[in-house]
């Protein structure tokens, strides 16, 4: 047997063990529990041995975060694969699926969506969850005449940031293989997409951490009403 090949397979297997153990610690105890020392203890190895695989805890956590995002996107893709190829239907199904996942994977949600994102936030649009969300949004843009803000209502102080974000959106949407009129993605639409995500993310975050200002006996109804409001504001209806 080739020693190089065997060592490569052993290294890959150990890497899988490390990430599997890190994920278990995350799910059971939360992001703070994911430390190199704790992982080494669970695996019965020394903490310095982990540095052969990851340069730091931050390095490991970033890989773990990527694994969580990939699993989330795969689950959402499976959900919408059962639906008709209609952008609005799929987009709002993704919104509901995101909430459902967040409420049943609170520790993973905390790691990915409620922790500091670092300096390269825009590049995360190209990650699996960002791609599946934006692909559905692209289909909505292509298939519907939406009610969107005009460029004139976009605050002047936000235009430079939104222009940068607009370029990232275009790149990701084009990579998704969706065809849509590029002129539809003006600053007004870009502004709208930021607001859409902020309201969705804010609502889900409040619910995950139990921070609603009052208790609701039927939070599903509140969430569905919020989605219906979002849809109505841009000229869509959802069932």
In total, how many beta strands?
0
Q: Which residues sit in consecutive blocks of at least 5 with pLDDT less than 50? A: 1-10, 118-123
Q: Percent helix among the residues? A: 55-70%
Largest sheet: none
Rg from Cα: 21 Å
Give the overall average pLDDT. 86
The SSE order reads HHHHHHHHH
Q: Name the beta content range.
A: under 5%
Overall shape: it is globular
Distance between the termini: 60 Å
**Count of alpha and pi helical runs:** 9
- The structure class reads mainly alpha
Outline the structure in words.
This protein is an all-alpha fold and 239 residues long. It has nine helices and no strands. The protein has helices at residues 3-29, 36-43, 57-80, 87-104, 106-113, 128-143, 159-175, 187-208, 219-233. Helix 4 runs parallel beside helix 8 (187-208). The longest helix has 27 residues, at 3-29. It is globular. Keywords: DNA-binding, Transcription, Transcription regulation. Residues 35-54 bind DNA. Residues 12-72 form the HTH tetR-type domain.
